[in-house]
Amino acid sequence: MESAGRSRVGIPQPPGVQEQPDSAAAQPPRSLAGAAPDAAMGDSAQEESLLLAAAYVYDAQYNRNIPFDTSPRAVRLYYLYNHWTMQAATYFFIFVDLALALFEEPAVYLLPFLVTSLTEVLCLLVFFGRLFHFAQVTPRDVFWKDTKNICIMITILMTLVDLIVFGALRISSIRGVRWSRPLRPIFLINFAESRQIRRAFRSIRNTLPEITYVFLLFMFSVLMFSLMALKLFGDRNLKTVEGLPYFSNYLEIVFDMYVLVTTANSPDVMMPAYDFSWWYCLFFIVYVIINTYIFMSVFLAVVYNNYRKHLKNEIRKLAYMKRRKMIEAFNLLKVKEEAEFVVKEDRWKRLVKLVAPDISTSHRELLLRICDEEQKGFVDKKSFVRLADLLNIQVITMKLHSHPLEVWIHQVYNSAPSLLLRKMVQHKVFVWMYDVIILINAVFIALDEENPLISYAEWVFLSLYIVEILLKLYTYEPRTFFARNQFWNWFDTSIILAALIATVLNTTLKSVTVYNSQQVLDIVFILRVLRLIRIIDSIQRFRVIMTTLINIVPTMLTFGGLALVVYYVFSIIGMEIFHGRVQFFGGNSTVQHALYCGNPALKDTTFARAKYCKNNFNDIASSFVVLMELTVVNQWHVLANGFALVTHEAAKLYFITFHIVVVIMIIK
Fold this sequence. Notes:
Elements: H1 2-6, E1 9-10, H2 30-33, H3 37-40, H4 43-61, E2 68-69, H5 72-81, H6 84-99, H7 113-137, H8 140-145, H9 147-171, H10 185-190, H11 195-233, H12 250-261, H13 271-276, H14 281-333, E3 335-337, E4 340-344, H15 345-355, H16 361-371, E5 378-380, H17 381-385, H18 387-391, H19 404-408, H20 410-413, H21 416-426, H22 428-446, H23 452-475, H24 478-481, H25 487-510, H26 519-530, H27 540-551, H28 553-578, H29 606-609, H30 620-632, H31 636-646, H32 652-667
Antiparallel strand pairs: 1-2, 3-4, 4-5
Helix pairs in contact: 4-5, 4-14, 4-15, 5-7, 6-7, 7-9, 11-12, 11-14, 11-28, 21-23, 22-23, 23-25, 25-26, 28-30, 28-32, 30-32
């Protein structure tokens, strides 16, 4: 029976393959699925089949599609592989590996090369161990055909080679380049834990063929209009506001016209031509209508439609695989009851306890009543397949507790004045009253802090908020008030307590004459403003919007991970290209070359006059800030021109590529 289990692989059939009936090859061995388990299998075999079934259900619940060997040893290793501590450790070392860029040249805080290199080797050992563990639970032929595993192994090897070569060059006092650093996000993408980020990448990759033709047509339009601009304005001796020749170089025209599509240099780019003749503005108006409004709208529509189509296919595939996993689990546990196969109630309960050990007994009984509506003592196939979806439904269990004060001082708590007070706190007028207080507080926040009256008023408002919290805790049972689903109560209390501590600390420090720090005061100001968010909970429409935003946080985190990968790669590449080219000497620096960011090539340029010196690639933190500014789009051409001046005109391709990848593809 064990050898039969080893021959089976927990991998679903691809979409489009017809589902096999229970008696077909997809069915587990007869000894596991045919007769009653008690008669056909021993306790050990029953436990093994139950563990395997639980693994299938767990995978179905979390939309996991990891092909694993079904032998008892592999199943136990698979449970260990998916344990939250193992996943947390993997993520920890992935982010340690990514964070090394903070401490490597060019660094935010420089550490010796030996420290960073040994840390990276440790991370690589953890990644290799994780991959080796995965190889122990996956059939060999499946493991070596998986592109993700090959990518991880190649990246580990390339990183080791890079470390050895860079270390040897460093010992020889030769400057080297850590060319493997942009590959670090591969670990974040390709480990099994990051399946959501992989799906997002896959959806974008599948969309590329359809949008390529639109993009090529768009670029053809830009190139054609650029050529027309060269012929129209190149020989008219026009000058830009900086006194440079206007539209005399074709490549510069292409860049300026591409920037115009993003509207970042409008109307500056057309003003020399517009000043020369009113009619020339028609050229730019037609260009903007065609490329900014028509092409970008078509591009957005194509991206959206194709992404939606591939996302639907992805969801359909996930739904298919979820059903296959649940059928596999059902086939392992089923017994014949009259004319149909079913799962007995006791086996079903043991399965649910394995899959979701943290849910309460009442929650488990509720699931059973849903799956076995007629209370026959067993669950049929149709109801069993729904279990994975039922486990994903959040069930809030409300336990009625007596208020501690009712137990300790029963007569006082239930007296007439106490009941009246509690009734007042529960009334909507109480909520409205504090909404008015919050609005009045908002007016005082905007007034001068140095005014003693305003300062004293802040203590009054803070006292009123503390009284509100105490009254609510007096009225409502504390465990119910601070339940996990009571977000606004937690938020309210946290903000008030933090504001109280910060205000007391600020007042205490003010009494000391040597105190001149603004940091604590800044925290107090922020906490005061955050209190205004409380009013959102009082307005139903606002509350619905906030709940929606909270619910889409997981999706936003997925695309946040996607953006992190792209930002990281571009930051590392940007540091290698532009490091040290632009320097920042501080806002109050009197050094002469601080006026042009330490590089004569930037003298009298828009970049230097705008004081963009701090926008540089001298460390990864500054690089992320620059890339964020590029994402916002405004003035991104000034940044691109500045870095092109200190390196080469080809550097503009870096900024154009980033704009295409992030702004046009990922954000849209």
